[in-house]
Amino acid sequence: MSTILSGIQPTGNLHFGRYFGAIQNWMRLQEKHDCLYCVVDYHAMTMPFQPQKLRQNSWELIFNLLAIGIKPENLFIQSMVPEHTELNWVLNCFSSYGQLTRMTQFKDKSSQSADKSEGFISVGLYTYPVLQAADILIYRATKVPVGKDQEQHLELTRNIAQRFNNIIGKEYFELPEPLYTEIPKVMSTADPTMKMSASKGDKHNIDLFADPARIRKQIRSAVTDTGDTPAGTMSPGVENLFSLLKAADNIEAYNSLQTDYAAGALKYVDLKEAVGEALVAISTPIRERKAELQADKKAVKNQIKASSTEIRKRAQQTVKEVKDLVGLANVRF
Ligand code: TRP
Q1: The whole model's pTM is what?
Q2: CATH class of 198-292
Q3: What DSSP line would sit under 10-35, residue for residue?
Q4: Does the beta carbon of 24 sit less than 6 angstroms from any atom of ligand 1?
Q5: Less Cβ around it within 10 Å: N or C end of the chain?
Q6: 141-172 pLDDT, tens per residue?
């Protein structure tokens, strides 16, 4: 059975864009495959961050993911498996400096980092994709569910694996493939020309864990027509509301409102009402489940520590084999 691995940074809140764009897919995959989902706290150190908040953010994300329904045995925190960083070093030595300098995410994020902290850009941000390669290869994962923005990082991972195999003269790592699934593109309701995002401010994302009143209010104030949409085409705001309705799987309301739209009889209030209700219907059981989990935080943390310990054994096996293969000293217990 092939192993699937994906990672999520404990930065920003968990909004509907992330839910529909990634986590919902993670949920589907875990029904049929060996899946590992990692809260990548080492990665979260690559941008300016607050040490007193990092651990709390990681646990918050764990609770959120469990509340959504990610299975605890599939879930772990990256730094609980420190072997990721050990493999990271080895892989650094199989990574092309030239290829790393071409990473577009580094270019984008380094300017954000410089803006935030007096010109400071960490080396960690630069080598971030190599750590990502270690996350994947340490479990010999062959499928990686990611968004298109991670294409270059996956390509790098494949190149690292290939170079490793060439140098040791053995097909040790199977080359991992990205798993692009058809996912709805969720835009900001406050500005439907840009993606829903945690980093652009509260009004540009709808938190999955927000109370129903807030969710409804954000949808009610969604931008619809700005008056500059050519006749006969749907405005980006209205299109986004329809996509949300579809993503929320309310197909009946979707079809009936589309019919209204086609007849020129769509009332935006009706569309917004339907979207608001659909999002609240998704978030309510998740919020309730989170409250239940939070009632016994210790039990949940112990469960994740146990799963991390199990998952770590798999990582340790790979690191041991890799050290043997590349000629590093290996202590045998
Ligand atoms: N770089 C990914 C992102 O920003 C997060 C990530 C870290 C990841 N390690 C990973 C994704 C391993 C897939 C596999 O979204």
Answers
A1: 0.95
A2: mainly alpha
A3: S-S--BHHHIIIIIHHHHHHHTTSEE
A4: no
A5: C
A6: 999 999 888 999 999 999 999 999 999 999 99
